Amino acid sequence: MKNLLLTVAALASFAASANELIVTASVDRASTTGAIDIMAAGDSVGYQANILVGEGQQLNLSACSASARDGLQVQCTYAKGQVIVLLYFGDFRVIPAGRLNLGSFVTNAAVSNVSVKHFYAVDRAGVELNATSRVVNGASGPADPGLPTGKG
User: Is 146 a domain residue?
Assistant: First the structure.
């Protein structure tokens, strides 16, 4: 019984310490809104997310870094069909553990297949950390079960 409890505790702490990108995509007839959140494990100094939304979009990224706090730098750009998000402290401090709401993006057309191409987390030495991602469909459809998109 004691071994079972230790195993459960170890698995719970592992699950709580994962770096994870969560994109919540809500699609309507004329656009797609993607809310971007990161569950930070407290071991990374930076994140990069490449979110596929398709070529030829006109994106509104004005709300992408709307929720940056405590000196966190958030950069959002659109290139080659991807929303590219960078998150870091300018002085390379470790990003504290917890949920980070990075804001959102809005496309000019309905995109039914938003997905994550890459999600990377790195430590102070530049070593890639374990990271996963998932896309949750907010308006309709099932959730993507989540895939490892960084080291793993």
Answer: no
pLDDT one digit per residue (tens) for the chain, 152 residues: 444 433 334 444 444 468 999 999 999 989 999 999 999 999 999 999 999 999 998 999 999 876 667 788 999 999 999 999 999 998 989 999 999 999 999 999 999 899 999 999 999 999 999 999 999 987 543 344 444 455 54
User: What are the structure tokens assigned to 25, written together?
Assistant: 């995509």
What distances in angstroms separate CA 118 from CA 1, 49, 133, one per listed residue? Answer: 40, 6, 8
Domain that holds residue 132: 19-140
Q: Would you say residue 13 lies in a domain?
A: no
